[in-house]
Design goal:
Layout: H1 13-46, H2 48-55, H3 58-85, H4 88-123, H5 128-143, H6 145-160, H7 165-188, H8 192-217, H9 233-265, H10 269-282, H11 286-305, H12 309-343, H13 349-362, H14 366-381, H15 386-411, H16 414-438, H17 444-447
Length: 449
């Protein structure tokens, strides 16, 4: 077996999961660093309006990309299941089906993103002084969105079979390229926010090239062959069974986030810039959550495929504990250092104030955010994607939007928007925690064999 590959069905649970999660963590760290570098360079070189244009579009990007990312989760579950069960022929068909789906998703998103951007930005009540720059940034971004989709697809394949180190290497390379291109396109060629978008898509296509080259040259069982890339009806059915709930969940949550962002936008450009700067910092809290989520889903999928039921339970508890502890530690650091962190993006006192206020409300509750995502990761790995979908739609969408629509007109303060996050994190954690303890999620795969 390649040294970069981790078989999560054998050996020490703690060592195996951490060995798999650490490259994911470092990779996510680099990705967050270059996302943050985008905002830092834009904010310092182009000003607060440009910063608001770039940092305030995250919910729109997630709205369009999130559905396909959710279905890609289903592909990873299917691949890891067959890998753990050593059903290599089925695994091969699942891998090539995943690539075919990624290519189709890239084409659809390119059309939707470039066509619908102005309309959605108006729905979001984007400030007029930000509207033109946001439209330019998003349109260029979606012209190259295939790089993001195909990188996530190829990375997901490698992670599903326990290879988290090679995607890390490729992400580090693309991250460094992105920062250099930001400085060149914005600082030297003066391309503005479009330069930031060009830097992002070029770096993403570099990472896709490196991932696909690795998969096509591999001598392992997960080798990719261009002539085998096609849709397989049986695999697509399984992928949709496990991934469609996550995709639907992502889309509806994204709509809810657009509603939240529109309320932030209504408080003006400084609120958009300050909260946008905070969102870049909050991304660091997601690092352990995202890393252990992928590790948990892969671990659960592989071990249930191998029918290692007790090992699955122990690994799930270990991964969740790690995610919660590390996320809360990062939250404490952000709470203490918020003023200095926000000032790195903007020196405008009003914008800094908005960012610090949001950090001081949300950061200490990152343990709840980690709990919710960890429970969801385990259940998706077990093939129970419907339950996390119900939780997220109920609490992160219906209750979140209802709370904002009722409370903001009454209190007329942005703190209402900020407090909705800890509130809904708490409710979803309670719901998923009860299901995790009471339900027989461990035998979900056995029922679908």
């Amino acid at each position: 077996m390649n040294i970069a590959q981790t078989n999560l069905t054998e050996g020490s649970i703690g060592k195996g999961m951490i060995a798999f999660a650490i490259p994911l963590f470092i990779g996510n760290l680099f990705q967050q660093l270059y996302n943050t570098a985008d905002a830092l360079i834009v904010g310092r070189l182009l000003g607060n309006t440009a910063l608001a244009a770039v940092s305030g579009t995250g919910s729109l990007i997630f709205l369009l990309v999130g559905f396909f990312d959710g279905i890609a989760v289903g592909s990873g579950v299917v691949i890891s299941r067959y890998y753990g069960a050593k059903e290599l022929d089925k695994m091969q068909r699942a891998i090539h089906n995943s690539i075919a789906f990624g290519l189709a998703a890239s084409a659809i998103l390119t059309v939707l993103g470039t066509w619908m951007t102005p309309t959605i930005l108006r729905w979001m009540s984007t400030p007029e002084d930000v509207m033109d720059l946001s439209t330019k940034y998003i349109r260029v971004y979606f012209e190259g969105v295939g790089g993001l989709v195909m990188y996530n697809t190829s990375r997901g394949i490698m992670q599903a079979v326990g290879n988290s180190r090679d995607p890390l290497k490729y992400l580090i390379i693309s991250s460094c390229v992105n920062v250099v291109l930001d400085l060149v396109f914005i600082g030297i060629f003066h391309l503005g926010v479009e330069g930031a978008a060009f830097a992002t898509i070029i770096s993403q296509f570099i990472s896709v090239f490196l991932c696909m080259r690795k998969l096509m040259r591999s001598k392992e069982s997960y080798k990719v062959s261009l002539r085998k890339i096609r849709f397989h009806a049986d695999m697509m059915k399984l992928v949709l069974n496990y991934g469609l709930p996550a995709g639907f969940q992502n889309s509806v949550i994204a709509i809810a986030n657009v509603v939240v962002q529109s309320n932030i936008n209504s408080f003006g450009t400084m609120a958009v810039a300050g909260c946008g700067a905070y969102s870049k910092i909050e991304g660091f809290a997601f690092l352990p959550i995202t890393s252990f989520n992928v590790a948990l889903t892969t671990f659960v999928g592989q071990n249930l495929g191998a029918r290692e039921f007790e090992r699955t339970k122990k690994g799930a508890k270990f991964g969740m504990l790690c995610a919660v502890l590390v996320a809360e530690f990062i939250g404490l650091v952000i709470y203490i250092t918020a003023p200095w962190l926000i000032e790195a993006f903007t020196e405008e006192p009003a914008a800094v104030g908005y960012g610090v206020d949001k950090a001081r409300i949300c950061a200490l509750f990152f343990c709840l955010l980690a709990c919710t995502h960890s429970f969801a990761a385990v259940l998706r790995g077990a093939g129970k994607a419907i339950i996390p979908m119900i939780a997220m739609l109920s609490f992160w969408c219906v209750i979140r939007v209802t709370f904002i629509k009722i409370a903001v007109p009454i209190f007329q303060t942005i703190d209402v928007v900020n407090w909705v996050y800890p509130l809904t994190w708490c409710l979803s954690t309670i719901f998923l925690g009860i299901y995790f303890v009471k339900a027989d999620w461990i035998h979900a795969f056995e029922k679908n064999r």
